[in-house]
Design goal:
globular, 110 residues, zinc ion binding, endonuclease activity, 34% helix, HNH, mainly alpha, binds zinc ion
Length: 110
């Protein structure tokens, strides 16, 4: 008995090999070191207030730079995919993403 609905696969799709996935051997394109620090500081300077709190009408200082589409889901490390969030909002968003990934196994690239 099938337990999951069939997933759409583009023509020519093949399952990713474990050694081709970002992780231990393959790096994602996230900026690290000083370049990453400079980038995060620039985003926080541009967005001093948490975006999700602003939507709720609150003014809370942002202290984390968040990837709107997570890197693990193929999101880019460019400025348009980044936003400033406060820690509680970021924790909540990450928790929801983990739950979704667990349910749909997006993070597995399968
Ligand atoms: Zn917030």
């Amino acid at each position: 008995m099938p337990t999951q609905p069939p997933r759409y696969r583009p023509p020519g799709w093949k399952p990713g090999k474990p050694w081709e996935r970002p992780g231990l051997f393959v790096k994602d394109n996230r900026k690290r070191g000083r370049a990453g620090m400079r980038d995060r500081a620039a985003v926080l300077a541009e967005e001093p207030l948490c975006r999700l709190c602003l939507d709720k009408g609150l003014e809370v200082a942002s202290d984390i730079v968040d990837h709107i589409v997570p890197l693990a889901w193929g999101g880019s490390d460019q400025r348009h995919n980044k936003q400033g969030l406060c820690t509680p909002c970021h924790d909540e968003k990450s928790k929801a993403e983990r739950k979704l990934a667990q349910r749909r196994k997006i993070a597995d690239f399968d």
